[in-house]
Amino acid sequence: MYLFNFMRKTLVVTVFWILFIAVGANAGSDPDPIFEKPRTVTLAEIAQKTTPGVSVVEVSDYAPGHFTGDMNLSPPHADMNPKKAFVVYWKDYPQRFVFSHEASYCPILELPNGAGMCNQFFEGNIQGPPENHQGSAELFNNMGRKERNSFVDVIQSGPERVWVRWNYFAVRKEDDTQPRLRGTEDYFAYPNGLVLRRMTYESLMPENHYAYSQQPVELFGVVPAGKLIKDLFSPDPDRGDYLTLALIDLYSDRKYEVYWGENGEVRRRGDDSTLAELSGSRGCALVMPFKDRLLFAALGDSSGFTTEKTDFVDHCTPGAKGGCEWGQGQWNHWPIGWVNSQEYNWEPGSPFAYSFGSIGQFFVPDGTRYTSFVKDYFGNAKDMELNHWTSHRVFYVLLGSAQDWDEIRRVGRTWLDKGENCANPESIADLP
Length: 432
What we know:
It contains seven helices and 19 strands. The chain is an alpha+beta fold. It has one domain.
């Protein structure tokens, strides 16, 4: 009996220490054990900093797209300090991941030359009829850029993992007293240069269809101040225009490409059936193939974007089924706030950094696709079954940079093939 009790106690103690060691080994998954927040630094100080893996700091003098002018010349800008930002940087990778206050903290995966990729957020459904609609829930307006409506917290600062949480209230551009929805997004960055985006939202007006969202991931880019599309992308050897946006299948060689010319021309390589096939794929990546590196956002069935409810829409190419037919959509309305509006078209010679796009991922009722953007967007907005589905889901997107298309496919497939484990931040830590 004594031997039995001794062995039982020994087993209990052994199990205890195994659990204790395991918890200690996972201590990196906990918030930083600090009692005082790190001081804010400048971009010049970041340039002098090093990290053994990945780190994040708050800076006081950041402007998107290498803009160096006076923020006050482009009112209204973000309140408090429009140059406030949280910058994630790596030891072994040139890109930075930036939460800029002037860009409503909507994060930008930024290359050293100031070019970058943004993937939108939970923008609310539009209120009112098509002929007299209102932008009911946005962030890229004066109200949306205010600190009370969009704010960031650093939970882990590195160097083994960075964890940043972004909360925002999507509000009307004239009045933010009644936010339409609240978004919560967590970003986990690892030393391998990859970022996992975890996103979900809650309607704050659950009886109103315009307080829900059907468009969480759209491919937008940032052009640095003083630059043009031709400065950032490589010309097509046969046609001379520039491959600016792409959607690729992670499980095949299927690809949908959008080319922009120097005089406003837009063409695509692929057609509506290609988009339909990609919308039915179990894994895709939205890509901006900059000269320096390819920036991408991978998503799929395993990461919450079920194929039955996913549709990809080309908003650039005239005649593309279901798109807005923007042509070369280029805007000054962010990341430098030009006017108190949700839209202001870029004009040649503008001194500001500006945004461009897009190919977008939209949620649709099972088995349907966009055929007419106005009809389908406004119609789907009133589908409360779809609205309730989107508001009760959690979605995951893998963000990163790559040297070539094969690398994107390899990394994206490896992640999605982990199945439900895609929801675990550690699922991207060991990706090649």
